[in-house]
Amino acid sequence: MLSRYDGSDAHWQRIQHLLPGQSGGHGGGGNDAHLFLNAIRYPAKTDIAWADLPTCYGKSNSLWQRYNRRCRRGVWEKIAAELRDDDTEWLSVDSSCVRAAGAKKADGIGGQEAEAWGRSRGGFGSKIHAAVNSFGHPVTLRLTGSKAADSPYLPGLIAGAGAEAVLADKGYDSDANREAIVSTIPSSPPWPVQCFFWNRKG
User: Fold this and answer.
1) Strand stretches in the chain, DSSP E
2) pLDDT in tens, 24-58
């Protein structure tokens, strides 16, 4: 069954070598790797629970366990880097909190910090820190607990992007962040370095 949420063949050709289980590798070939990748996209696009995945993708718990193993190996970060849009002339930086309804306290290795959970005034959840380009395409993403401050994450979000301008709200305005922005500019640029910080309430 084909879904409108499936990834394109062009994207698949670019990233298939990054997925574990290739022919000739340890553990044999992963003939269903493309289907698995589409299964991962489906709940992300539709906001459904893993348990509600269409049965054509396989057993939901097995898919989640497989997804989690890929998380631990850093596979998704490699895929995101491969598919990243190279147009990073302008970067916008911001964060968004994702609330966890009825989530239990993280009790795995490392606890809440390792699993990017935290409690803030708005409740219990995680915070997504993002740098996107002028088209709104993600360039860098970081996940923390919801109580984490925004400002310390700006240098890591823009590092290596070579942006000519960075847009962020006043919460990111600091001498350290201005220096971080300047350091991302290519050597001896023919343009002035631009930093834009605005007040959300203004």
Assistant:
1) 90-99, 118-120, 123-132, 138-145, 165-169, 194-198
2) 555 444 568 888 999 999 988 888 888 999 998 99
The CATH number for 175's domain is 3.30.420
H helices of 58-174, where? Answer: 60-73, 75-82, 111-114, 154-158
Determine if the pTM surpasses 0.85.
no
What separation in angstroms does the CA of 76 have from each of 40, 109, 172? 11, 20, 27
Q: Is 44 found in the same domain as 118?
A: no
Q: How many domains does the chain have?
A: 2
Question: What is the rounded CA–CA span in Å between residue 116 and residue 25?
Answer: 32
Q: Which domain holds residue 34?
A: 9-82
Q: Rounded to an integer, what distance in angstroms lies between the CA atom of residue 194 and that of residue 164?
A: 7
